[in-house]
Amino acid sequence: MGKRPARSAIPTFAFEAEERRFWETHDASAFIDWRDARVAVFPNLKPSTQTISLRLPAALLAELKALANKRDVPYQSLLKVFLAERVAQESALAALPDRAVTGSGRRQRAQSTRRPRTSGAERNEEQAR
User: How far apart, in Å, do the first and last CA atoms of the chain sit?
Assistant: First the structure.
């Protein structure tokens, strides 16, 4: 085996904010040999969840439970996955510069590629052509 590259000494920090700024701008691999790392286990940590009360329409809850049953997971876990996915999706949409929030609160592209909505009479007229 070859020699391990020399590592720089980790500086001493007066404040946590100073250390945070340092690690935001420096790569830890120049200071730490990750081959010596070990998995840390923290058995006494408390979960960082918060209990909430949520009222759902009975039909929606029944549908959620049916989906969870098909996937063989608890329905509350499936609901958390669905919520996390949607929050991530909305966060990604909010980060895009070409998105705008309309008066209804729904996000739409500035220049939509979808056909504009038509009334029932206009659709019937199109179908007759």
Answer: 78
- Residue 95, in any domain of the structure: yes
Domain total of the chain: 1
Q: How confident is the model over 28-60, as pLDDT tens digits?
A: 888 888 888 888 888 888 878 889 999 999 999
CA 41 – CA 79 distance, rounded (Å):
28
Residue among 24, 26, 22, 29 nearest 4 (CA): 29
Domain interval for residue 74: 58-113
Place of tokens 């592209």: 109
- 45 lies in some domain: no
Residue 20 lies in a domain: no
pLDDT digits (tens, 9 = 90+) for 101-118: 555 555 554 444 445 555
pTM for the predicted model, two decimal places = 0.43
